[in-house]
Amino acid sequence: MIRFFPLSIYGVATCLLLCATSCSTEPEVQYGLLPLELQSSTADKDREKTIDQWISILHADLFGSALGSAELFDIKQAFESVGDQEVARESLVASFMQNPNVQLPSAESMLTNPDQFVEATYVRFLVRYPTEAERTWMRNYIQNTPTVTPELVYSSFALSTEYLHY
Questions:
Q1: CA atoms within 13 A on the CB side of 17
Q2: Is residue 10 part of a domain?
Q3: Same structural domain for residues 112 and 79?
Q4: Which residues contact 56 (CB under 8 A, 6 or more apart)?
Q5: Alpha helix (H) ranges present in the chain?
Q6: Do 58 and 88 belong to one domain?
Q7: How confident is the model at residue 166 (pLDDT cuts 50, 70, 90)?
Q8: Which of 23, 87, 152, 154 has the fewest C-beta atoms under 10 angstroms from its C-beta?
């Protein structure tokens, strides 16, 4: 029995050593989304979007949801059947604006807080903040033009040259 005593001390010591070193706290891991980096100007937008990209992004900007592949195919077929691409874009934007599911702010919210409306519109469509000159011009235009509506502003942004590029 004396013979097994030193072996059991070594066994107990090894067990204690393993237990002490195996118990450690796990590092805290957090998952999330990185913030979208907004551009400061149009200087970096030098590549034109493809028809598929433009249609998909337009739908996401106006409806807040992705466009299904079957719908994209149908729209693209109709889009390509028109010879003048500018006319096709205008027709598609007008068609989307007639849809009751398009997400437009109210005219009242646009008139009560034009600066917030202008900033949100620039971020939504152009993925950048407006410059002070753009903000001032848009604010004055909204305040001094009684016939302007969010639908007209959104249509103008969707048909702008800058929106066509990324």
A1: 6
A2: no
A3: no
A4: 66, 67, 72
A5: 4-22, 51-63, 69-81, 85-98, 107-112, 114-126, 132-144, 150-158
A6: yes
A7: confident
A8: 23
Q: Do 57 and 97 reside in the same domain of the chain?
A: yes
Residue 43 is assigned to a structural domain of this protein: no
Question: Taking the CB of residue 142, how many other CB atoms lie within 10 A of it?
Answer: 20
- If we measure between CA atoms, which residue out of 87, 90, 163, 154 comes closest to residue 126? 163
Note whether residue 1 is domain-resident.
no
Give yes or no: residues 91 and 108 share one domain: no
What does the angle CA 155 – CA 161 – CA 165 come to, to the nearest 5 degrees? 110
Range of the domain at 53: 49-103
What is the residue-wise DSSP string for 41-89?
Answer: SSTT--SBPPHHHHHHHHHHHHHSSPPPHHHHHHHHHHHHHSS-HHHHH
The span from the CA of 47 to the CA of 32, in Å, is 29
Q: Give residue 85's Cα distance to chain centre.
A: 25
126 CB burial (10 A radius; 0-12, 13-18, 19+): buried
Domains of the chain: total: 2
- Asked if the model's pLDDT at residue 138 lies above 60, the reply is yes
pLDDT in tens, 46-56: 788 999 999 99
CB 163 within 8 A of CB 128: no
User: Is 128 within the bounds of a domain?
Assistant: yes
